[in-house]
Amino acid sequence: MTDTRRRVKVYTLNEDRQWDDRGTGHVSSGYVERLKGMSLLVRAESDGESGSLLLESKINPNTAYQKQQDTLIVWSEAENYDLALSFQEKAGCDEIWEKICQVQGKDPSVDITQELVDESEEERFDDMSSPGLELPPCELGRLEELAELVASSLPSPLRREKLALAVENEGYIRKLLELFRQCEDLENADGLHHLYEIVKGIFLLNRTALFEVMFSEECIMDVIGCLEHDPALGASPRRHRDFLTKTARFKEVIPIGDPELRAKIHQTYRVQYIQDMVLPTPSVFEENMLSTLHSFIFFNKVEIVGMLQDDEKFLTDLFAQLTDEATDDDKRHELVNFLKEFCSFSQTLQPQNRDAFFKTLSNMGILPALEVILGMDDVQVRSAATDIFSYLVEYSPSMVREFVMQECQQNDDDILLINLIIEHMICDTDPELGGAVQLMGLLRTLVDPENMLATANKTEKTEFLSFFYKHCMHVLSAPLLANTTEDKPSKDDFQTSQLLALILELLTFCVEHHTYHIKNYVINKDILRRVLVLTASRHAFLALCALRFMRRIIGLKDEFYNRYIMRNFLFEPVVKAFLNNGTRYNLMNSAIIEMFEYVRVEDVKSLTAHIVENYWKSLEGVDYVQTFKGLKLRYEQQKERQDNPKLDSMRSILRNHRFRRDARTLDDDEEMWFNADEDELEDGEAVVPPSDSKAGKPGGGAGEDEDLMDPISKFMERKKLKDSEDKDVLGKSSSLSGRQSPSFKLSFSSSTTKTSLSSPPSSASLHPGSPGSPGSPGSGAKGMPPTPAAAAAAVTTKVGLVDYPDDDDEDEEDVAGESKDENPPVPKKSKLSS
Predict the structure, then answer these.
(1) Rounded-to-integer distance, Cα 138 and Cα 174, Å
(2) Which of 695, 713, 711, 693 is nearest to 758 (CA)?
(3) pTM exceeds cut of 0.85
(4) Sheet hosting strand 37-44, strand order edge to edge
(5) Angle between helices 417-426 and 379-395 in degrees, nearest 10
(6) What is the mean pLDDT of residues 46-67?
(7) How confident is the model over 744-773, as pLDDT tens digits?
(8) Cα–Cα distance between 651 and 641 in angstroms, integer?
């Protein structure tokens, strides 16, 4: 199978009747068990998808395959799904075509195998009974008969095929064009109208072999002449030939030495003109009627780009004249327009060929040439150069970045390519700034770290961003700085505001994606203060852009930024804008409140204190949202912690012990308790994991004896014991002896009872909350199992499964109250030991 492979491009026809490139691979034919028949297989050759199947198509005996231009095979896989294989070599196309014809039992010399017939059995039998379609003699008197024959054949696929074969085999097109010339000389209007219908019908036959004859150099102008005489226009035919020969001029900006290439360019332009201007709109015809015409133009363009790319002399002359200072403006204008058209044609190339195309242009010096062009005064030339630049940035941002970093070593900042782009963005004369929006998108692509490369030797991100902030950022921010010298924008017209909004959008992008570069620039140049001047603009979209810029900075939670904001009181213009907005419930109102809400929710302590200390009097009256009261509460809590550092450290201890561990994760001891079978436990025995019964430090003070309850204890307390059992246990707490009721097997330690789950036989007191109590890691001593009396003395208290930070105050009050009371376990243990 390897021997039969041929390099091909796979195309599919999209909904817009344009061919989409699906990739390059090697085609083969063979029997596929799953499809139960001979099939065409195309496997990808690209590195990323090596060996992947691009196409697997069974050669259906009833599918119509067409061979076009010696290297194309086109067919319809299903309704509205057309496929094409473009072969690199004619030999490969011929070999696969023979395989297809062999499966369908056709002669390989034909260019089309057959078409699906959607006719009734009776019509099919009638048509099949006649071996071929006989055309009337090509004479003036028989034109009406021929026009009727063509019109009657178009609805039937089989009759269309027979008609196409008859027209092709008999050389009928040239005979018809000879009659056209006679009719024009005789001014035979009826004959010209019949010829219009006949030629239009031949187009609808959708056959490549006929197109190649009609679009040949000697025939195409007469074909266009036939289509001028539409009967609907009466005696006023269109003058398409006059336009093509007199108005439309073919300008060879660089002489093309290859006559075949020149002829292909002429042919493509004229066929495109026929499709766009001469023929009726495609919606008039049946679906897929002109698919072959679309394919003809598409593959012509691919061929033109390939031939121009291979002509080294042509490209060398092109770029030499573009960069030559002696070239006059008109000539350079033509050269730029040609280069733009050349780049637009390249979009039809497959990815590998497109890579080679742009590498060739880069090697020829397209970027220095664009730098010269962008410095010209002609608006149309600059617009064309911008389009070319967009093709290059879209293809390879790294190539553009590498060029501008190299040129900065030789040129001044003013004439750097990126600075020229920025200046054109700033100086866009369009009231809607259409060109500026396009250029801003290109700049955003160039400064986006996501498409920057990193290698072992160098990091493109570091190098390019250092270059950009040193040589280009001052040019970008110049309009912003010039317009914000006062408390209000100097110019507040719509076009200026649009431009400043674009610049702010790019700066906001930089804040999000660049690190210390933009931070240093914002702080050193006091950019944020200047930006916030724009909150006073009468254009709401610009004021919101300024707020968005500040919101992105606050969202980074960077203390360098926060200190800069506080030092310069940069919340002042925001508060002023909020108050000036009044009670209007609009986007400005929501954006400002959301900014303060973010500071509150994220508990940005430095900004919270700054806002409350400086702006509380202005904001305390806002009560339709709780944001500002919440900020004041945060501030007061923060001050309380600062005034009572011991209390603050105690809260942190509680949080560390009670909330840090993932509640979903069980330690080994907890797993042991849950895995234990309740029936295996001895009646009356309090079940406690060994690690939870630890010796406390004797002599521990009240501060050490706080109840740092282990979360598993709280989980067990959540199990609601029956009231009767609780009362029974409590009633017997002083006199219970012997075995406990089997229904009560767990004893708990809570913040209210302060009774230890277990104690060693020593006389040392164990206080819950000491380092040896449950929940206090670090205690190594293991406790002994408790006696039944000690277990019965444990009083259970219902505790929620989830503790919230707000509960800390209540816990601390309990701890403080307990330290004053006598410790309950001490007399119980004395009683037990006695």
Answers:
(1) 10
(2) 693
(3) no
(4) 53-58, 37-44, 19-32, 6-13, 81-87, 72-78, 65-68
(5) 120
(6) 76
(7) 333 333 333 333 333 344 433 333 333 343
(8) 10
